[in-house]
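Methods, example record. To illustrate the input and output format used throughout this study, we show the complete record for Ferredoxin thioredoxin reductase alpha chain domain-containing protein. The sequence lines were provided to the predictor; the line carrying structure tokens was produced by it.
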Amino acid sequence: MATATASVAPPSTSTSSVLLRRLPSPAPAFARRLGPALPLPRRARILLQVALTSEVFSDDVAAEEAAAAPKIGRRVRVTAPLRVYHVVKAPDLDIQGMEGVVKQYVGVWKGKRITANLPFKVEFHLDVEGQPKPVRFFVHLREDEFEFVGDE
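The corresponding predicted structure is encoded as:
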């Protein structure tokens, strides 16, 4: 019967290697008389990559944030035919052609890339009858669903 042990290397910035080795069990008395135990074949050793830390800040994530930074604060116009249903004062609202401001890029969170399908958070203001102030709401959009307005 074989036993398994794990030796863990000190954590690095992204991943660490954990080596699992199969160690021979203590040989029975009759096997000790036959001679020394043979080394294990290479395929008996398993090498696994395990992420030990979640604070990974690589160059490609920094480049992605740097590429999105100039887009924040710019005015945009929605070009795709989109309907939103979360605005209470105007249910079933078609936002195609509306203009808003990019408020946030949510594709990177706490230094990690996340799988945001709609990474740009855009703020809109809508004038509604009977309301003294315009209704403010946010919509998450992809980059191909809007165009930049103005020549900044």
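Annotations derived from this record:
Confidence is low (pLDDT under 50) at residues 45-56.
The first helix runs from residue 29 to 32.
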